Amino acid sequence: MPTSSELIVQVLEEAGVEYVFGIPGGGTGQIFSLLYGKEDRIKTILVRHEQVAAIMADAYGRATGRPAAIMGQGLFIGSNATFGIMEAMLSSSPMLVITDTSDGGVAFHAANQSGAGEYGSIDLPTIFKTMTKYTSLATTPKEAVIGIQLALKHATSGRPGPACVVMRSAAIGGEVDMETPPFVHNTAGYMNTAKPQSAPQDIQRAVEILSQSRR
Fold it and tell me: pLDDT-based confidence at 199, cuts 50/70/90?
């Protein structure tokens, strides 16, 4: 059976995501490792600060209309990267945010690293909900994969903006049973969203109002 990390990389390919910006950390290191060797389809740009990753993803989304991904360890994305995420939200730039709660293993138990929202840790999902169109918390490997697909759909449909998936440590790298529901479908179906359009008469009315305006 494929792992959730393998399927997440597959989802990024199916969605046509060309760039991943970030710093390996926490559970996301598994996904970064799988991106190695796929530079012809997905370019991984490693940065020295998460804020830089988010700003680059915002600029890319704003210039192209397509989502780039930012990825890194939970609280570092939930603090350092938030400036770029907020800018994407306010500027309607499509963006995919992939991060984790860093709740597995003794090394992740420090209060300044765990973001699961339990006693003694920071509630990362709630933080991201304040600055994204969509935020989900994945507790199983399959939830992580489908969560990424839904985040891409939300990031690109309607008014574009950032969408986030926060993954529990158990959701990263575990095997995904492809034979039982909910089923994992090709991501292309999630990306088939119509762009919002204005009615011709509304555009004409706006032109008339502007042409009649005075200083």
Answer: confident
DSSP code per residue over 1-48? --BHHHHHHHHHHHTT--EEEE---GGGHHHHHHHTT-TTT-EEEE-S
Separation CA 193–CA 14 (nearest Å): 15
The closest alpha carbon to 121, from 166, 155, 163, 60, belongs to: 166
- Note whether 100 and 27 are within 8 A (CB): yes
pLDDT in tens, 77-109: 999 999 999 999 999 999 999 999 988 766 555
3-state secondary structure of 64: helix
d(CA 94, CA 17): 11
Q: Cβ distance 186 to 114 under 8 Å?
A: no
**4-211 carries CATH number 3.40.50.970:** yes
Confidence (pTM): 0.87
